[in-house]
Amino acid sequence: MNRNPHLNELGEFLKARRGELSPSEVGLRGGQRRRVSGLRREEVALLAAISTEYYTRIEQGRLQASAPLLDEIAQALRLNDDQRTYLFDLAAKERLRPPTSGDRQQVDTQLQRMLDDLTASPAFVIGRRTDILGWNQLAAALWTDFGRYPEPERVFLRLLFTEPWMRELYADWEEVTRLAIAQLRMESARYPGEPRLAALVEELSARDAQFRQWWTEHDVAMRGKGVKKLRHPVVGELTLDWNTLTCGTDPDQHIIVWNAEPGSPSHDGLRLLASWAADQKPTTSDTAT
């Protein structure tokens, strides 16, 4: 019998999460010596108040769990909000239509105008599979002239693995990359079978062992906000805040805006970068070919 691939993915996610927990973290005794780390299936079943056999069938992708039962399992595994959202997206019976290879995301004129008006803040628009869909001049100066890449290669996660300058730019490259992978996996639950997303995962899995390892860890994250340290070849070290906005006309387009604390060295660095960019005139997405 062919199993539902979405339920298989759900089972792999549950297995990964229980492997991260120790009995003491959930109020259980460790008992005898364990061959592998993490909770056993019977311990998760105990915490969720179901039989071990029933939980095993869920983890093996052989059973569609109800929403109340998933909620019990989520509590048992101490899932955070992002992980709970991912779990329920995987289990959803009514799923979003997977985009086809012809479903091309584009930044509209009004959104590009808004990006261009952000002259003091680097900003770019990222799509379903971390495609760079739009950017302003200061973003091109901070990262690169994205317009020099063919559209299929203009993918943030792909650039993290294929471009040495990305490793040099981010002081915490591993943290940035793992977050991007976690965000991509979050998208994969909403659009299972999306051909371009699947092709990206296949390409990076074949190219890089580190990607393969991190992808199989099943970490997930929503797009949000944070602070990153960058090392720019022209203006030096920058500590920048980043925030995510969602496009009103396409909720799968996310606007990432970067800024620095007023009066800080990083704020001065961005002003210097803006001056340098005005002389270089890197492309924005409305001028890229």
Task: Characterise the protein shown here.
The chain has 289 residues and is of the alpha+beta class. The chain folds into 2 domains: 5-91, lambda repressor-like DNA-binding domains (434 Repressor (Amino-terminal Domain)), CATH 1.10.260; 109-280, 2-Layer Sandwich (Beta-Lactamase). The protein is 46% helix and 11% strand. The chain is built from 13 helices and 5 strands. It has helices spanning 5-18, 41-48, 52-59, 67-76, 81-91, 109-117, 137-142, 156-162, 164-169, 173-190, 195-207, 209-216, 265-280; strands spanning 123-126, 132-135, 225-232, 236-246, 254-259. α2 (41-48) crosses α4, α4 (67-76) runs antiparallel to α5 (81-91) and α11 crosses α12 (209-216). The radius of gyration is 22 Å and the shape is elongated.
Share in β-strands: 5-15%
Order of strands across the widest beta sheet? 2-1-5-4-3
The total domain count is 2
Which CATH top level class of the largest domain fits?
A: Alpha Beta
Annotated CATH architecture of the largest domain: 2-Layer Sandwich
Distance between the termini: 49 Å
Q: Name the structural class.
A: alpha+beta
Specify the overall morphology: elongated
Radius of gyration: 22 Å
Count every helix, treating DSSP H or I runs of 4 or more residues as helices.
13
Largest sheet at a glance? 5 strands, antiparallel
Flag low-confidence runs: none
Mean pLDDT: 90
Protein name: Helix-turn-helix domain-containing protein
Domain HTH cro/C1-type: 38-84
InterPro entries: Cro/C1-type_HTH, Lambda_DNA-bd_dom_sf, MLTR_LBD
Organism: Streptomyces liliifuscus
